[in-house]
Amino acid sequence: MKHIAVLASGRGTNLQAIIDNIENGTIPAKLVCVISDNKEAPALERARRHNIEALYIDPGSKKTWLIPEVEEKYVKVLKDRNVDLVCLAGFMRVLKKTFLSAFKGRILNIHPALLPAFPGLDVQRKALEYGVKFSGCTVHFVTEDVDAGPIITQAAVPVLDDDTPETLARRILKEEHRIYTEAINIVLSGKYKIIGRRVIRTD
Question: Which active-site residues does the annotation give?
Answer without folding.
Answer: 111
